[in-house]
Amino acid sequence: xxxxxxxxxxxxxxxxxxxxxxxxxxxxxxxxxxxxxxxxxxxxxxxxxxxxxxxxxxxxxxxxxxxxxxxxxxxxxxxxxxxxxxxxxxxxxxxxxxxxxxxxxxxxxxxxxxxxxxxxxxxxxxxxxxxxxxxxxxxxxxxxxxxxxxxxxxxxxxxxxxxxxxxxxxxxxxxxxxxxxxxxxxxxxxxxxxxxxxxxxxxxxxxxxxxxxxxxxxxxxxxxxxxxxxxxxxxxxxxxxxxxxxxxxxxxxxxxxxxxxxxxxxxxxxxxxxxxxxxxxxxxxxxxxxxxxxxxxxxxxxxxxxxxxxxxxxxxxxxxxxxxxxxxxxxxxxxxxxxxxxxxxxxxxxxxxxxxxxxxxxxxxxxxxxxxxxxxxxxxxxxxxxxxxxxxxxxxxxxxxxxxxxxxxxxxxxxxxxxxxxxxxxxxxxxxxxxxxxxxxxxxxxxxxxxxxxxxxxxxxxxxxxxxxxxxxxxxxxxxxxxxxxxxxxxxxxxxxxxxxxxxxxxx
Length: 508
Fold this sequence. Notes:
Largest sheet: 2 strands, antiparallel
Distance between the termini: 53 Å
Strand order of the largest sheet: 1-2
Radius of gyration: 27 Å
Shape: globular
Order of helices and strands: HHHHHHHHHHHEEHHHHHHHHHHH
Oligomer: single chain
Structural class: mainly alpha
Strand content: under 5%
C-alpha cells in the first residue's frame, strides 16, 4: 500500500500542470472534506497531553490526505481505464482467496484470522464486499448490452467468482461482511426502486432479498436448536460417582455447549490418569493457541455428549487427541461446515457471557464492552471530546475505572463513530459530517450505484470497526471513492459542456 502511494505521488509529479491541478482541487468538494477531516485532527491536537500518540495517529492517517490530494487533482481515468482497474482489483482479491484456500488446505489447524496472510481478515472482508459490488455492477450493465445474457460466458464467470468469494467469507467467519452486503442491497433497492424500468426485475430483487432474510432466519433457528437441544446425559439426574466409584464434580452452572453442560460430570483424577496414557503433553500444559489442555479436553468431551472421565476418554481416537493438543475444543471446529463453526462460536461466546459475564477474547461481546465504556468517556466530554492525542488514554482509564475485564487491552472504541465522538466531541464530529454530506450531495456521487454501495460498505464497517485507525482501512476508504469521484466529476463536466452546446445550438 505504501508503494502504491509512492507511485501515485510520482505520477502526480510527472504530470505537473499545477494550474490544472489547482483548478481540480478548487472544484472538488470531496477533496476539501478530506482536508477538513485532517484539519480537525490537527486542531484538536491543541490541549492534548499525549502528543506522541496524537502525532502518531495523524501520521497513520496521512493517506486520508495524500490519496485524495493526488487522485482528485491528477488527470482522471477514463471509463475504460477505471473498468480495467476495477477488474484487476477483483482478480487480485480472488487470487488472495485462492492463496487463502491453499494455506487452509496445507497448514494444519490454521486460525481463521490468518487464512489471508497479507491483511487482517476484517479489512480483507471489506475488499471482498467491494469486489462483489463491482461484479454486480458490471454484471448488470453487461446483461443489458448482450442479446442473450444466459449464454454469455463472461456473465457466468462473474457468477462463479462471486459464489466463491461469498464462500470464502464463510471460511474467514466474517459475520459483519454478510450484514454489510445485505444492508447495502436493501439500501440500493430502496434508493433505485423507482429507477428500475422493469417491474419484474424490481420485484425479483425484492423477492430475492426477502428469501435471503428468510433463509438466514431459518438457518439461525436450526443452528440454535442444534446447539441447545439437550443430549440424553444432560436430562438425566446427576450421578455422584463414575463407573469406577470415583466422585464426580458437578458445578451445575448452566454453561452449555452442543446440548451438554460443560462443568458437570468431571472426574479430574481419571482424566489425569487416562490422558497421560494417550499424550506426551501434560494435562496442564499450554497448547499452541495459548489455551490449557485441561479445559480444552473438558469441552471436547462435553461436545461428544459424554462424561469427562475414563469412559469419555475411550471415545477419543488419535485424531481427537491431536486436535485437543492443538487447542481445538470442539469436534465441530474440525469437521463442521464453516457456517456451523461460525454459529457455534457465537453461541459459546454468549454462553460464557451469560454464565460468567466473560467478554475478553470474544469477538462481538468485547465490542459491546468497549462501546459501553467509550460512550461513558464521550458523555464526560460531549462538546469537544478528549482531543486527538488523549482518546486512547481516556478510554483505557475508563476501562480501569469500571474494573472492566478488558482493562489493559490495546483497543479503545472499536467503532469509528464513537472514536470520532470521543476524540472530537459533537462539535468536531458535526464539522466532519457536514463537509462530507455536502461533498457527496454537491458532486451527486450517491446517484452512481457503485459509489452508493461503496459508501454503504464503509459506513456500515464504522459500526463494528475503527476502520480509519489502520493504514489498510484508510487506503480502502479513500482510494476507490476518489477514483470513482474523479471519473464522475469528469463525466459531469462533459455532460455540462454538452448541455451548453445544445442550448446554444437551440438559441441559434
